[in-house]
Amino acid sequence: LIVVLSRCASIRISNELWAMQELSVIISDCLHVLLIYGQAMSYAKLAGLQPIYGL
């Protein structure tokens, strides 16, 4: 019984770690997209273009 409980706990912990990894990847992707978007906006302003919102 103890072995089964510890196995369940380890699976649960690994699932939580995997979920946190996935979440961090998603967050970093979003930040990357925002960074590129912000750079594109600043370049557009430097070039004298009207920024396009809602891409």
State the domain count.
1
**Helix/sheet category:** mainly alpha
Mean pLDDT: 81
CA radius of gyration: 21 Å
Low-confidence stretches: none
So how many helices?
1
Relative strand content: under 5%
Overall number of strands: 0
Percent of residues in helices comes to: over 70%
- Separation of the first and last Cα atoms: 55 Å
Q: N-to-C SSE series?
A: H
So what's the overall shape? Answer: rod-shaped
Q: How many strands, what sense, and barrel or not for the largest sheet?
A: none
Structure description:
There is one protein chain. With 55 residues, the protein is mostly helical. It has one domain. 82% of the residues lie in helices and 0% in strands. It has 1 helix and no strands. The longest helix has 45 residues.
What is the strand and helix layout of this fold?
Layout (H helix, E strand, L loop, with lengths): L1 H45 L9
